[in-house]
Amino acid sequence: MSEIRSLALACRDAAPLLAVLDTPAKQALLIGMADALRHRTADVLAANAKDMQQAADKGVQGAMLDRLRLDEARVAAIAQALRDVAALPDPVGVVTRRDTLANGVQVERVRIPLGVVAMIYEARPNVTADAAALCLMAGNAVILRGGSEALHSNRAIAAALHEALQAHGLPAAAVTLVEDLRRETMVELLQLSDIVDLAIPRGGEGLIRFVTEHARVPVIKHYKGVCHLYVDRAADLPLALNLLIDGKTSRPGVCNALETLLVHRDIAQEFLPRAAAALLTRGVSLRGDEATRALVSQASAATEEDYAAEFLDLIIAVRVVDSFDDAIAHIRRHGSDHTEVIVTTDESAAQKFVQALRSAVVMVNASSRFSDGGQLGLGAEIGISTTRLHAYGPMGAESLTIERFVVRGEGQVRHPESRVF
Amino acid sequence: MSEIRSLALACRDAAPLLAVLDTPAKQALLIGMADALRHRTADVLAANAKDMQQAADKGVQGAMLDRLRLDEARVAAIAQALRDVAALPDPVGVVTRRDTLANGVQVERVRIPLGVVAMIYEARPNVTADAAALCLMAGNAVILRGGSEALHSNRAIAAALHEALQAHGLPAAAVTLVEDLRRETMVELLQLSDIVDLAIPRGGEGLIRFVTEHARVPVIKHYKGVCHLYVDRAADLPLALNLLIDGKTSRPGVCNALETLLVHRDIAQEFLPRAAAALLTRGVSLRGDEATRALVSQASAATEEDYAAEFLDLIIAVRVVDSFDDAIAHIRRHGSDHTEVIVTTDESAAQKFVQALRSAVVMVNASSRFSDGGQLGLGAEIGISTTRLHAYGPMGAESLTIERFVVRGEGQVRHPESRVF
Q: Where do the Aldehyde dehydrogenase domain residues begin and end (chains A, B) (predicted)?
């Protein structure tokens, strides 16, 4: 048996032990993990220093290097995130529906854990603790396959998690860190369809496409977030401007940042010059169609690719649309099913927008930056799904469970002639 | 572009038109389909006669030939099933949760259709109408890929469905029947991950494994139903006998029929001889372990394979277990995650049974034959899932939808410093 298969089997064997933990036991475990992480801060920072050195030697710079970096405050934040997950509602055992059928049989739908979740991720070492915590709170075992650039940091964080698991009488395999980071090993992991119930890739589009391409286990993911702000003819323009600036500039490198601005032609002349001035002041460059460029001289010409791009940067694509329907058609054609916003005071336009689009999150008069598990009330988030199955949009602990049927009778049979007594 | 891709694209283009239909429009459409099918009964029977002749020429016999056969009553039943689906609750637009966050933002979870569902199935022509109806009621477009043995029948049924679609101003592509039945065309369909949101295979284990192996789109399926009846030491034995006979003999060829009987050793001597007599009288042959054979002379020796087998026939595997835990261990090892039943008057044993097993349907003192969408109150069923994702157990119209986020604000931004006004 291959090493990855035997690791995964050990993880699967741990799953039934986690599935039956009650809420206080899971809370104590996660708080124990937070404590162990705090006590091991020095180890984690020493391990991270090795990763940072290796990354620097390879010429990694800027935002990527910063995402890898840990310091005392960041380790404390990771520990706090474990405590935050411990405070979330436990999704396991929740009865979502309860019916008594005409024959007296009682039917309940009850949430149970998925089983074994494989996380495939890059760079940020905090995912090691965050993902483990959410999986455990939902009663799952987890296989963590992080990036090679963070291996020392991930190993040190996992050691803290294992210490707490063992202190609570649970096998370390409940949180299994894959240290063999060869691509063929990842492919093998993604094909263990008798062991792994779900794979969640998080990272760049290249990683996600690789995972989707090679997986034989179910995958939930999003490739990118090309989020649109549509400013309707009936928009409150100051409100639209606030949402535009928040969506584009408050954190341009994340998937719920705005990438495209669509403006109804009836208000383009009033809105676009002011919007452009506010964006330009904040360092955002504009790429627009002809109508946009006629109103905003600083805008360069947008290509078709720009309208499908996730810039993750201070760049925005702009288009003036002739009608509401043109805005919908643009989003359907170029969108990524992640998050779309309409700014309007016209309630019927708002309803039509919501109904016409199939994106995971559709917003009326609110910032795209709220498209996040924490912001939308899920507590924490294991990822965002644009896979239209199981979960759609930000995924919290509940997305790591499944409803099953629990049926109770008093001897009812389907065919009366089956009765012997 | 290949023909299957262009068919699938036309189907996808129909999906937004279906997604916005209101409940009365969908009801009228399904009733129109039922009427068209009744009017075309003669066409459907003539087409079916061709399929039956071809099947007979190929030497198809018995149950397989019967599953293919239509007559006036069966066509009427298919039309009635369309009316029954029209009477089901519409899952689309249902608000499942509603919250107002601290910042005043309102968050709703609302059900929307999946989009495009591909059904891959064998033999029974009724699936053509049943699957189309459930997909349409949930606002989805559907691609139907039936078996070659039923092609004439499926084409005649689809023609009736298309007549109703067109009468309601909808494109026939909303229900697309694939007539090119080459395996490579099915593989191409299963890899259209930019078009098909979900594939549901229904049929023999060979077909389902083929679909799972080749799909790049999400697949929900079950391979087989190895359903267990565990008779606890605290069982009501007459009740246990009724459930055993109903589960094994009322329809042995279906996936919710019992395949394995586990009996606690404390009651084996009292229960097994009576159970065996009742089974033998009804033509069921028993395959047992040593302890079973010591009590039931007519039982042959069970192999390990017998305990994992879906017999779909009047055969049952039997084992005497030393304890409750041995019963759980047996089911975990040999089970298919479909349906398991405990017979007990001991409430704590019942609870432990439900908690220890991860099967899609777990029952206490009720027949495994209730593990069916219609029986469990879903109205109709598109399939049964043992895939631990999205849906688990019998799947009704709701399983063909997904919850998304609808967010309404009054200009809230995530970072106050983003406010221009």
A: 27-307
